Amino acid sequence: MAHLHNSKNLHKEKEKSGKHKEKEDNGLPQPKKSHKKVVVIEQNGSFQMTIPKNFICEHCYGAFRSSYHLKRHIYIHTGEKPFQCDVCDMRFIQKYHLERHKRVHSGEKPYHCERCQQAFSRTDRLLRHKRMCQGCRSKAPDGQILL
């Protein structure tokens, strides 16, 4: 009973301070926006934390964890590409894809292989290089050949 009394006092204090939160059925203050994490424990003792995907696409019923991700996804169905390159007029669904594309025009290559110093404009190209380049996989960072 003391716990309930304390939580009511806490709620009254928050109302007075202007930091009012929505209440759930249990009468305890709850945050207005929360991304509750769900912990799934497997039989082998391993566990993972997930965020529920409560935002559903009405076109394909895909589930997303936020309204932002759902809105971005809906562009796939509508064909809308709101981000346009000012050099070549290519259009993109995501701003990040536009920014990445602009490196084609600027020649910027910010990603470097630490073994051979070859430069790349995209991280995926650097990762592919690291997987495929035999010379880089068999050389030490100082240039010596590894056995």
UniProtKB/TrEMBL annotation:
Annotated region (Disordered), positions in chain: 1-36
Annotated localization: Nucleus
GO cellular component: nucleus
SUPFAM superfamilies on file: beta-beta-alpha zinc fingers (SSF57667)
GO MF term (any one): zinc ion binding
Biased composition (Basic and acidic residues): 10-26
Source superkingdom: Eukaryota
Family classification: Belongs to the krueppel C2H2-type zinc-finger protein family.
Job description of the protein: May be involved in transcriptional regulation.
Protein name: Zinc finger protein 740
Organism in which the protein naturally occurs: Geotrypetes seraphini
UniProt lineage: Eukaryota, Metazoa, Chordata, Craniata, Vertebrata
